[in-house]
Amino acid sequence: MITKEQVLHALSFVEDPDFKKDLVTLNMIKDVEITPNRISFTVELTTPACPMKDHIEHACRNAIAHFVDKEIGVSINMTSRVMSKPDKQLDNIKNIILVASGKGGVGKSTVAANLALALQLKGAKTGLLDADIYGPSLPMMFGLEGARPKASKTSDGKTKIEPIEKFGIKLLSIGFFTDPNQAIPWRGPMVSAAIKQLFNDADWGDLDYLVVDLPPGTGDVHITIAQNYPVAGAVIVTTPQNVALADAQKGIAMFMMDTIDIPLLGIVENMAYFTPAELPENKYYIFGKDGGKHLAEKFNAPFLGELPLIKSISDAGDNGYPIVTDEDEPISKEFLIIAERVAQQLSLQHAN
Amino acid sequence: MITKEQVLHALSFVEDPDFKKDLVTLNMIKDVEITPNRISFTVELTTPACPMKDHIEHACRNAIAHFVDKEIGVSINMTSRVMSKPDKQLDNIKNIILVASGKGGVGKSTVAANLALALQLKGAKTGLLDADIYGPSLPMMFGLEGARPKASKTSDGKTKIEPIEKFGIKLLSIGFFTDPNQAIPWRGPMVSAAIKQLFNDADWGDLDYLVVDLPPGTGDVHITIAQNYPVAGAVIVTTPQNVALADAQKGIAMFMMDTIDIPLLGIVENMAYFTPAELPENKYYIFGKDGGKHLAEKFNAPFLGELPLIKSISDAGDNGYPIVTDEDEPISKEFLIIAERVAQQLSLQHAN
Ligand SMILES: Nc1ncnc2c1ncn2[C@@H]1O[C@H](COP(=O)(O)OP(=O)(O)OP(=O)(O)O)[C@@H](O)[C@H]1O
Ligand SMILES: Nc1ncnc2c1ncn2[C@@H]1O[C@H](COP(=O)(O)OP(=O)(O)OP(=O)(O)O)[C@@H](O)[C@H]1O
Ligand SMILES: [Mg+2]
Ligand SMILES: [Mg+2]
User: Fold this and answer.
1) What pairs with residue A237 in β-bridges?
2) Which residues cross the membrane (chains A, B) (predicted)?
3) Residues of A whose CB is below 8 A from B279
4) Which of A140, A249, A284 has the CB atom closest to B246's CB atom?
5) pLDDT of A253 higher than 70
C-alpha cells in the first residue's frame, strides 16, 4: 500500500514558481488520503486568484505518476487561504489594496471596480471602498444611485454601517450618504473623518481583499489611509502620456516615502490605444505609446497589463456594471489576468 | 463739412449684438476726427477677443456710408478695454476665470492653457495660474520643467514672486517650487497657504484675464479661492460620459452655492469623439455622445465648444507648447472660438 510519505516525497518535487520552493516545504499540502486505487489531497494556495493554479495542479499529477504510481487515480482539491502579514491586518480584512495614480481620470475607479470583481470571480472574499469623497464613482458604476446602506448593531452594542452587496462583493462609498446633485465642499479634516468612518464603522466581515479606489492627488485621503491602516500594497494606474506619468510618479514617490512605505504591486497602463472596428489591425496611440511600461521599468515594478480605449468599458461604467461581469467581452479576460498578477504580487510580498 | 454729431447719429444705428444697445449709448465710440475726405474714430469693445469685432466694424462702415457720405474714407481703430466689476477686481487683475470640472483628467489643464493663450493671441493681457498642487501640469505643458521664478522687491519693500513669461503670458505653478520627482503629501491647510501665496505674493502686473487651472474635486483649493478672491466666472470642462457629467454637475453645484456664487461662463465638451486619419468621415464616440451639450442645457449655460480626441493635443501638452500656439493646426481655431465665447460671456456678466 502507498504511504503518505511516498506522496509527500513525490510532491516535494513540485515547485511553486512564485515562491521558488516546493509545495511540501511551503506547507501547502493538506489532507492526504490514500485508498487502494486513489490518492486524494488538498493544495492550499496563497490566493484563489493564483495565476499558476492550473500549472501546479498539473505538476502534482505528473509527480504522483512519475514517483508513485502511473495508474492510480488522483483527486486534487485546489483551495486557498489568502495570506496576510500579521502586522498588516485590520480586523478581519486580510489585504488592503490601494488603487491610485496622482493623475485624474486615468481609470483608477474603472480598474478598482474591475479588479475587485475579478478577485471575487476567482473565488476571493472581496470588498470595494470608494475613497473619492468629491467625485465618488462607485454608485453609478454599480447601478446603485440612491442606495442607502443600513445600520446594524453589533453584539457589543456599537452601530455599524452594512456595506451594500452587489455582484458578490461588499461596497461602500461616500456617495451612498450624499445627494448626487450637491457639491461636497469639504476641507481636509472633514474628508479625513469621513474616510475613517468608512473603514472603522463599517461591518466589512471577513475579507481576503479590500480594494480602495483613491481620488487623484496625494492629499488628505491618501495621508489618512496610509497613516491609519495597514495597507498591503498599491496598484498604480496611468495613461501613457508624459503629463500623466509625471503625476503617477509623484503618486509612487508618496508610497515610497519612509513614513508611508507601502509596497508597489505594479502598474496598469490604461487607455493605451484605440482600435476602430473597421480597422482591426490599427492601433491609434492617441495618448502616446508604452508610457506605463517605461514607468514600470523605471521603478522596477511589475507591469500588470495594458488596457486599450474601448467604448464598452466606458458604457459599462455608465450603465451600472463593471465590464468584467460580462464574460463575453474579450477585455474581461485582461482584467482577470491583472487581478491574478495583483494577487500573486501580494502573496510574494507576504512571503518575503 | 461733416459734423461729429452726424457721425454719432449714424453710429447710433449700429447695435452691439451682445449688449443689444447701440455703440453710442454704450459709450464705445471715441476720438472722432473729421477731415474733408476722411472720418476716423475708435470703437472701444469690452474685450479684444470679441467674436463680433468684424461684424461691428462692418456695420459702422455701412452706417457712415448710408447716413453720412457714401464716398468718404473711413478709418476705424478697433480697440478694447476689458471690463471688470468694480467689486470683482483683485489689484490689477480685471477678471479671474476658473477652469474646473469636479472630474479628473477631463482636460481642465489643456483647456486652461489653450484658453489663456488664445485670449493673449486675441490681444488681451493674460496670466495662467496652475492651482493643482498635487499634480501641477503647467511646467510640462509649457516646457518649463526646472524653471524657477525670480523674487523681486516692490517699491514698498515687499518681496514678490515674478511670474515666468512664455508665449506672451504670465505663468505660475506650484510645480515651479517643488521637485518633480517628489510627492506633495500635503494636508488641506498647507494647500490653502500655497494657493494664497500664488495669488497674493506674485507680481501679476496688469492683467485683463487670469485663468486659473483648478484640480479635480471641490476641496480646499476651490474653497480657498472662492472665499478669498473675486472670481469673475467659471468654465466647466467635461467629457461626455455619465460618470464625468455627475462630477461636473457637483462642480457646478459648488459654484452655484449661495456662499460661493460664481457665475457659470459655459461648458466645454472635451474628448467628444475620435476620427482616425484613414476614416475621416467616421466619428467614434468612445465616451458617449453629446454629454456636455446636455449638461449645458440642463443648467441653461452657454455651450462653449466641443473638442475631439486628437493625438496632437496630447503630444503638444507633452512637448511643452499648448496646441493653440500652432496656427496650422485645425483645432487651434476651435480654441480661439472658445476663448471669444468666454470673453463675450464675461462682458455680458459685467454689463448685467
Ligand atoms: N480603457 C478604457 N476605455 C474606455 N473608457 C475608459 C477606459 N478606462 C476608463 N474609461 C472611462 O474613462 C472615464 C474615467 O475613468 P475613471 O473614472 O475610472 O478614472 P479615475 O482615474 O477614477 O478618475 P478620477 O480621477 O476622476 O477619479 C470613465 O468614464 C471610464 O468609464
Ligand atoms: N481633446 C484631447 N485630445 C487628446 N488628448 C487630450 C485632449 N484633451 C486633453 N488631452 C490629454 O489628456 C490628458 C488629460 O488632460 P488634462 O491634464 O488637461 O486634464 P485635467 O482635467 O487637467 O486632469 P487632472 O484632473 O489630472 O488635473 C493630457 O495628457 C492631455 O494632453
Ligand atoms: Mg475615480
Ligand atoms: Mg489638470
Assistant:
1) A268
2) none
3) 276, 278-279
4) A140
5) yes
* CB within 8 Å: B284 and A311: yes
CB contact under 8 A, B219 and A187: yes
> What's the grid cell of residue A95?
489585504
The answer to whether the CB atoms of B216 and A104 lie below 8 A apart is yes
pLDDT in tens, A276-293: 999 999 999 999 999 999
CA of A214 to the centre of ligand 3 (A): 7
**Which residue among B135, B220, B285 sits closest to A188, beta carbon to beta carbon?**
B220
Q: Could you tell me where the DSSP H helices lie in B73-137?
A: 108-121
Q: Cα separations (Å) of B140 from A338, B5, B175?
A: 31, 55, 9
| Partner residues linked to B56 by β-bridges | none
**Among candidate residues A55, A42, A51, A48, the one with its CA nearest the CA of residue A14:** A55
Contact A278 B282 (CB under 8 A): yes
Residue range A148-190, pLDDT digits in tens: 999 988 888 888 999 999 999 999 999 999 998 888 889 999 9
The residue ranges of chain B whose pLDDT is under 50 are none
Nearest ligand 2 atom to the CA of B307 is 1
Ligand nearest to the CA of A309: 1
Closest C-alpha to B339, from B111, B52, B54, B83 = B111
* All residues at 6 or more sequence positions from B176 whose CB lies less than 8 Å from its CB, including other chains: B139, B144, B147, B148, B149, B164
Say what percent of chain A tops pLDDT 70.
Answer: 99
DSSP string for residues in A94-163: EEEEEEE-SSSSSSHHHHHHHHHHHHHHTT--EEEEE--SSS--HHHHTT-TT----EEE-TTS-EEEPP
Buried b (16+ CB within 10 A) or exposed e, B228-260: ebebbbbbbbbbbbbbbbbbbbbbbbbbeeeeb
Set of cell numbers at residue A152: 446594524
ipTM of this complex: 0.92
Locate A319 and state its grid cell.
450603465
**DSSP designation for A284:** B
Contact call for B104 and A288, based on CB within 8 A: no
Q: Are A139 and A173 in contact (CB under 8 A)?
A: yes
CA angle A36, A40, A44 (to 5 degrees): 165
Minimal-distance CA residue to ligand 2 atom 29? B314
Question: Which H or E element spans position A270?
Answer: strand A264-274
Helix (H) or strand (E) holding A169: strand A169-173
For the CA of B241, the nearest atom of ligand 1 = 29
The pTM of the whole model exceeds 0.90 = yes
Ligand 1: residue whose CA is nearest its atom 16: A107
Residue B107: how many CB atoms within 10 A of its CB? Answer: 24
How many whole angstroms separate alpha carbon A85 and alpha carbon A211?
A: 17
CA distance B137 to chain A (A): 6
Q: Which residues of A fall in the annotated binding site for ATP?
A: 102-109
A168 lines ligand 1 (CB under 6 A): no
First to last CA, chain B: 39
Contact A185, B224 (CB under 8 A): no
Nearest ligand to the CA atom of A140: 1
Please tell me which residue of chain B has the smallest CA distance to A277.
Answer: B284
How far off is chain B from A96, nearest CA to CA, in Å? 20
Q: What is the pLDDT of residue A38?
A: 96
Phi and psi angles of residue B66, each rounded to the nearest 5 degrees, phi first: -75, -45
Which residue from B326, B311, B277, B324 is spatially nearest to B114, judged by alpha carbons?
Answer: B324
Q: Which residues in B lie closer than 8 A to residue A279 (C-beta atoms)? A: 276, 278-279
A213 Cα nearest atom in ligand 1: 22
> Could you tell me which of B341, B269, B266, B268 has the C-alpha nearest to residue B301?
B266
- What pLDDT score was predicted for residue B88? 65
Where are the extended beta strands (E) located within B59-125?
A: 73-80, 93-100
Cell numbers found for residue A193: 473623518
